[in-house]
Amino acid sequence: MSLSPSQHQAIMRGYEITRDQNRILSEERRERIYHEIPEFKDLDAALGTYATRRVRLLLEDSPSSSEEPENPIPRIIQRKKTLLQEAGYPADYLEPIYTCPACKDTGYVLLESGLREKCQCFKKQELSYLYEQSNLQGILHSDRFENVSYGYCQGEDQERLRGAVRISKEFAETFPCGKNLLFYGTVGTGKSFLSGCIANCLLEKGFSVVYFSAVSLFETLARYSFDGNAKETLYNFCKDLYNYDLVIVDDLGTEVLSSFVTSQLFSLLNEREMRRHSTIISTNLNLSELRDRYSDRVFSRVSKSFVLCKLTGPDVRMCQKLNAIP
Ligand SMILES: [Zn+2]
Fold first, then answer.
1. Which of 217, 232, 242, 303 makes the best surface tag, with the fewest CB within 10 Å?
2. What's the whole-number average pLDDT of the chain?
């Protein structure tokens, strides 16, 4: 799983806080009832005394016999419920309070096999962490395969789109597949949309995904690299960058080109390849522009280890805007 130890700790700490809060709430309720219904307090005291006596008898190993007095516990419990209801409270008012009854605010549920499994409430928090760290604000929740529209392109353009959708779906379904994807082609043909579809799919399966526009990725790397005080930050940033299950670099080619960018791009591809982690790149450049812009070794890395998906056709966003004009 892809949560970092500190994120896991933060979730577990949250459960601790919830349990503390619920315990305090429970104690306050009990105090209130003791105050309002003095008999209730007496019954609790009687239960305590009886339980102590039972334990003592058991420890003394007295033979249970017919002279053992009737067990008063069920009667006392029933009386307590009645008292609560007569005072206008629900019968379970003083039962332990759980925000998530399924896991009793522990984050884990015990299976019949004896193994522990993450509770739904844990998985929900995990998902929101994964989304938060994924930097995916630029990618929409509506980027989903079921929302693919083929209506804006025809002929060869549509065939290419269908092929790219098929490859993207297979990528998401077989992940972690160790494959890399390059979406290239003209503006508005669905490259970022397909990256978004894959990202949403994988995040929901619990994989760690991070998204960068090329501009922000190389700017961030440059800022940390050229700041003498940011060595540790740079180290941690790169460690994460190389270790995410999936890294998406959108709009490669829109950054300001320098030898720094080229060498960082090569390191990114190389380090992730060595770890067999997937990378998706989208670009408006065609293959020869890619080769001319970056070094040969970058281009040969991309052409050898990336599945190339070419997308062509009209600019869908422009078409949608034009269609929206009444
Ligand atoms: Zn739960």
1. 232
2. 87
- CA 97 to ligand 1 centroid distance, Å: 13
> Cα(48) to centroid of ligand 1, in Å?
31
CA 23–ligand 1 middle distance (angstroms): 17
Centre of ligand 1 to C-alpha 43, Å, is 33
Q: How many residues does the chain have?
A: 326
Helix (H) or strand (E) holding 317: helix 316-324
Q: What is the pLDDT of residues 87-119, one digit of tens each?
A: 999 988 999 999 999 999 999 999 888 888 888
Q: Which residues, in sequence order, are CB contacts of 297 under 8 Å at separation 6+?
A: 266
Quick one: pLDDT at residue 1?
A: 40
Q: How confident is the model at residue 262 (pLDDT cuts 50, 70, 90)?
A: very high
Residue 105 contacts by C-beta under 8 Å, 6 or more apart in sequence? 15, 18, 19, 22, 98, 99
In 3D, which of 260, 277, 326, 266 has the Cα closest to residue 299?
266
The token pair that represents 295 in the structure block: 């070094």
pLDDT band at 65 (very low <50, low <70, confident <90, very high): low
How far, in Å, is the centroid of ligand 1 from the Cα of 8? 15
Structural domains for the chain: 5-100 (no CATH), 134-324 (3.40.50.300)
Structure-token pair, residue 81: 């419920």
* Ligand 1 centroid from CA 183, angstroms: 40
Strand runs (DSSP E) across 41-160, as ranges?
108-110, 116-118
Contacts made by residues 163-170, CB under 8 angstroms, sequence distance 24+: 163/309, 164/190, 164/194, 164/309, 164/310, 164/311, 165/194, 167/307, 167/309, 168/194, 168/197, 168/198, 168/309, 169/145
Contact status, residue 200 vs residue 209, Cβ threshold 8 Å = no
